[in-house]
Amino acid sequence: DEAGKVITGVPARVFASTKGDVWREALVDPTTGSYSLSVAPGTWYLGYRLDPASGYLSAEEARIPVEVGQDATVTKDLVVKKADAVIEGRVLDPDGKGVPQIFIVVSKSSFKGFAGEESAFRDIFVAGGETGQDGLYRIAVPAGSYFIKTFVRPELGLLSAEEQSLTLKTGETLKLDLK
């Protein structure tokens, strides 16, 4: 973690990719917090996914560069950020009923004005989740300022909720229903 403590007891996986889209992944040993990946020589980019219930954030894209030489063993510790605030609420339809299976994204930047340019959209994802059967959601994030947006499956015949901006303090649980 950010304090240098090895994280154990948390389900996680580490993945590596190349610019040529070669992909490798391995499970993290939950008793030791260690992982091992066998890869070919070259530049690899690492990412990781931890159980969202762990209170730690995942690095969903492989971005951490690692140079691997022929017959080399490289040790790379991955530092994960602890979520210290929570956004929770319900996604409601126009009749006030909870809507299941709505994907919610918390981002550093607004989706408004996104013109499809990859560089403008890079590195904005912070956390996400899906509503339960009753439309409830709970997303842990680090304290800070964000935008929250819903993504609705087209077959539901509903439009996404209006994007909202929000700021959370350490230890805060923000209640936010989205319609």
Order of helices and strands: EEEEEEHEEEEE
Beta strands, count: 11
Portion of residues within helices: under 10%
Distance separating the two termini: 36 Å
Instruction: Quote the beta fraction.
Output: 35-45%
Number of helices: 1
Catalogue the unreliable spans: none
Mean pLDDT: 88
Helix/strand structural class: mainly beta
Compute the CA-based radius of gyration.
18 Å
Shape: elongated
Largest sheet: 4 strands, antiparallel
Trace the largest sheet across and list its strands: 2-1-3-4
Describe the protein's topology.
Blueprint: E1 12-17, E2 23-27, E3 42-50, E4 59-68, E5 85-90, E6 103-107, H1 118-121, E7 125-130, E8 136-141, E9 144-151, E10 164-168, E11 173-175
Parallel strand pairs: 5-11
Antiparallel strand pairs: 1-2, 1-3, 3-4, 5-8, 6-7, 6-9, 9-10
Provide structural commentary:
With 179 residues, the chain is mainly beta. Helices cover 2% and strands 39% of the residues. The strands form 3 sheets. A 4-stranded antiparallel sheet has the order 2-1-3-4, with no helix packed on it. Strands 7-6-9-10 form a 4-stranded antiparallel sheet, with no helix packed on it. Strand 3 and strand 4 form a beta hairpin. The radius of gyration is 18 Å and the shape is elongated. The relative contact order is 0.18. The model has no long low-confidence stretch (mean pLDDT 88).
